[in-house]
Specification:
Elements (H helix, E strand, L loop, with lengths): L6 H17 L9 H4 L6 E11 L6 E7 L5 E7 L3 H6 L12 E8 L6 E9 L4 E3 L13
Parallel strand pairs: 3-5
Antiparallel strand pairs: 1-2, 1-4, 2-3, 4-5, 5-6
Length: 142
Amino acid sequence: MKARGTPLRSGIAAAVLPLALLLARPALGHHSFAVHFVGDELVTVTGVVTEFTFRNPHGLVMLDETRDDGTIVHWRIETNSPNILRRRGWAPDSVKAGDEVTIEGYPARDGSSSMRVARLIFADGRELTGQRPPPPGSADPD
């Protein structure tokens, strides 16, 4: 005997499937650390945090660095995912707008004022660890 779905069940499936396809969000691919950042080089910037977001796929620190000549450089500093950050002692309120910090990180390959955080140091000496250095022979640390 051949199994068949009921007409009601088949009708619901026929109505729901197109709706689900219309509402589905495109999957955003995760990018490799090595594609965007130089893993064997560190840069250091000191400035004032203007924004900190603690969200997937990566957190973000926005920082204004005032150079000796008075120019302000706006830095975009990517962190790890919140899951990894929590394991390293970060929390959504760890970093606040107005905090004066020094950040060491891996510079962007494109030469922009962007980096991946390796270590964030507060004015009082407290530290938060970000991206670990890549193991020898590896392009992707975390």
